[in-house]
Amino acid sequence: MALKIEDNSILTMTMALFEAPPSFNCNYPLFASSRNTSTVVISCSASSLPPPSSPKIPEGGTTNPNSLNTAPDRSRDRRKVVRLAWEKLVRWSRSWRSKNRTDVLQQTNKVVVLGGGSFGTAMAAHVANRKADLEVHMLLRDPLVCQSINDDHCNCKYFPEYKLPDNVIATTDPKTALIGADYCLHAVPVQFSSSFLEGISEFVDPGLPFISLSKGLELNTLRMMSQIIPQALKNPRQPFVALSGPSFALELMNKLPTAMVVASKDKKLANATQQLLASSHLRISTSSDVTGVEIAGALKNVLAIAAGIVEGMHLGNNSMAALVAQGCSEIRWLAMKKLSLDASCQLLLLQPIG
């Protein structure tokens, strides 16, 4: 018999374990780490156990009260041992997962954010709050916004009422911003990304991971960010991660619960990005389907505009539900048929890709 649970069901597992018949013997649990959760598998086998022994009754017909209590005592002792072993393994598992989650953050010393818009500012503040001594440099074009961030710790253009962490530093010099960076968050609008990146390409390290926050397709060429960044930097092997999800910058600034997905062909890079960005109010899922995430993140904007029209015309909840259902179906159909993507695209709508 095998019991498989998620680590958020420890209480349920413990109750089930303690309610198991005494004849079952639970072997050593095996912890297996996945992308977002840890799974505990406990194998229980009754075939290898001898049948439960019962106290023998003497030939005279009399029984010893102490011998009748032997079996319950053994059962209680066995459950106590199992409980102690289980609690020890749970503590070890939590410690291991906590250490694994913080390794990337501890090793990261500098993050650069390209662009000073609302979402770039919100992500810069989020990353800066993750670690007090982490340097978060924002590369801007507007000197007034740059001065307000450095002097007043606020973005005077987008978030004048929100104070940014002290470790957020703004600059207009690409060399100062990019030198020694461990990760780069690209928040420049898609239509201006190519020319912007070409202007700073000489300062970009070939191994610097780019985490794209920009959604959409380039006009005329219909290129995605996974194509624009390597081509503009003239480095086809530039590490790339696409970040997408239904997220408003204002709600990120207010630390409201948000879910996003990071997609990369490099599984280790996707997991590292997850550990860098995930927090108590920001859930990060991982995916290997970069094209699917980018296409869905771009096409959902068309659906959002249509939803705004339905809302503005007061057509009701039935129309809104029909629009969302039909729109999601068409996005999946386009990803599967027109782009000839693999079967993983069938799971696109199960991930936060907005």
What does this protein structure show overall?
The structure is a single chain. With 354 residues, the protein is an alpha/beta fold. 45% of the residues lie in helices and 16% in strands. The protein is built from twelve helices and twelve strands. The chain has an eight-stranded mixed β-sheet with strand order 7-6-5-8-9-10-11-12, with helices on both faces. Strands 1, 2, 3 and 4 form a four-stranded antiparallel β-sheet that branches. Helix 10 (267-277) links the parallel strand 11 (258-263) and strand 12 (282-287). It is globular. The two termini are 41 Å apart.
Order of helices and strands: EHEEEHHEHEHEHEHEHEHEHEHH
Total beta strands: 12
Specify the biggest β-sheet.
8 strands, mixed
Strands in their spatial order, largest beta sheet: 7-6-5-8-9-10-11-12
Give the structural class: alpha/beta
Quote the beta fraction. 15-25%
- How many H/I helical runs? 12
Q: Give unreliable regions as ranges.
A: 1-50, 342-350
Give the C-alpha Rg: 28 Å
Shape: globular
What is the averaged pLDDT score? 81
Secondary structure: helix percent: 40-55%
Distance between the termini: 41 Å
Helices and strands in order, then pairings?
Blueprint: E1 2-6, H1 10-18, E2 25-26, E3 30-33, E4 38-45, H2 65-68, H3 70-107, E5 110-114, H4 118-130, E6 135-139, H5 143-152, E7 168-171, H6 174-178, E8 183-186, H7 190-200, E9 210-212, H8 225-233, E10 240-244, H9 249-253, E11 258-263, H10 267-277, E12 282-287, H11 290-312, H12 317-338
Parallel strand pairs: 5-6, 5-8, 6-7, 8-9, 9-10, 11-12
Antiparallel strand pairs: 1-4, 2-4, 3-4, 10-11
